[in-house]
Specification:
The chain is α/β, with parallel strands linked by helices and 339 residues long. The protein is built from 16 helices and seven strands. It has a single domain, classed as SGNH hydrolase (Rossmann fold), CATH 3.40.50.1110. A hairpin with a 2-residue loop joins β6 and β7 (302-303). It starts with a helix and ends with a helix.
């Protein structure tokens, strides 16, 4: 009996302590979530443009850093918004698309896929998707929906640390008058990767992990969410186009399963009723002459600011020309032989 009372007392103490920690941390978490940089929270920007967006671009970090609406819109005649996010899950893409399709006259949605888009799992993203994605989702119900589908209990300590740590940094900057979290509305969701000129750095571990993604194959959950995302966009009256961002030459040569992966993506697009061809900009004719590894990439699969400006121009050119097949090789084998 005494043991039960002692256990009960301990549990009550633990609960009280946890509640106190959460209560004291709440101002820091709110401070972080109220941040207004595009990288941390673009809800304010999407509210600003609500009702005017006719084109959505959505994907992971390759797309977030790679496509600049300020370049695309004048050339293609769009009013676009880059709704991409680092480690964005396909279910997260569905929630964001659903929210924005409901309040914008969206005519087209461009969905970016990289090598891990369809092969990533909750077990190998280390909770990063939940940490960065959650502040972008509008509404408590949608946030809970996202966490129930994508979050894991093991991610919670990391999320708690991330939000409180960055909340403290932002609070200190506000006190010091150095709060740099000012949203540039003109970027329309594009997050330029502004680094000094430097040589690319290769992370062998990262390269191997991406190969492991591919070898694990397209997961059932990702397949279902990918098809559902396309279906929901088309049901809202939007044309859907699937595309892939340019990768560094060293990574293209490192991995040898590109044609097989592209075939799988094209098969899924056809299954979902997408009539436009998949625009893989690694097959863009002249890509090898246009992009320099050390000049236009900051690592093996992400464009830097210089690369994003080049990519945005050829992206606008391709979509303006109704996906002209003359601009692209038919396969990676043909591209490697030619370039």
């Amino acid at each position: 009996m005494r043991g039960f009372k002692a256990l009960k007392k301990t549990l009550v103490s633990v609960v009280i302590f946890a509640a106190a920690v959460c209560l004291m941390s709440a101002p820091l978490i709110i401070c972080y979530l109220r941040g207004t940089t595009a990288a941390e929270n673009d809800i304010i920007a999407r509210d600003h443009y609500a009702g005017t967006i006719d084109t959505f671009i959505i994907g992971g970090s390759q797309v977030e850093y790679g496509l600049d609406p300020k370049i695309i819109d004048p050339a293609a005649g769009f009013s676009s918004y880059n709704m991409s996010c680092v480690w964005q899950s396909l279910y997260g893409e569905r929630i964001l698309a659903r929210q924005e399709l409901a309040r914008n006259p969206v005519k087209r949605v461009y969905i970016g896929v990289c090598l891990d888009t369809l092969t990533r799992t909750d077990d190998n993203d280390d909770g990063q998707g939940e940490i960065i994605m959650l502040p972008r989702i509008r509404g408590l119900g949608s946030k809970l929906d996202y966490m129930l589908h994508c979050g894991q209990l093991s991610d919670l300590p990391g999320m708690f640390y991330y939000y409180t740590h960055h909340g403290m940094i932002r609070l200190l900057n506000i006190i010091r008058g150095r709060d740099y979290s000012i949203l540039d509305f003109e970027n329309r969701g594009f997050v330029p990767y502004l680094l000094p000129d430097q040589d690319m750095t290769y992370d062998l571990g990262g390269e191997i992990s991406v190969r492991d993604y591919y070898e694990n194959g397209i997961t059932v959950e990702n397949r279902e969410n990918f098809l559902a995302l396309i279906r929901e966009c088309r049901e809202a009256g939007a044309e859907v186009v699937i595309f892939a961002t340019p990768l560094s030459q060293v990574f293209l040569e490192y991995f040898d399963g590109w044609d097989d992966y592209l075939d799988q993506v094209e098969e899924l697009a056809r299954e979902a009723g997408v009539t436009a061809p998949v625009l893989d900009f690694n097959l863009y004719k002249g890509r090898a002459q246009l992009f320099e590894d050390g000049e236009d990439f900051y690592n093996w699969n992400h464009l830097n600011y210089s690369g994003s400006q080049k990519f945005s121009k050829i992206f606008a050119e391709a979509v303006s020309d109704a996906y002209s097949g003359e601009m692209f090789y038919n396969s990676y084998a043909e591209m490697f032989e030619a370039e």
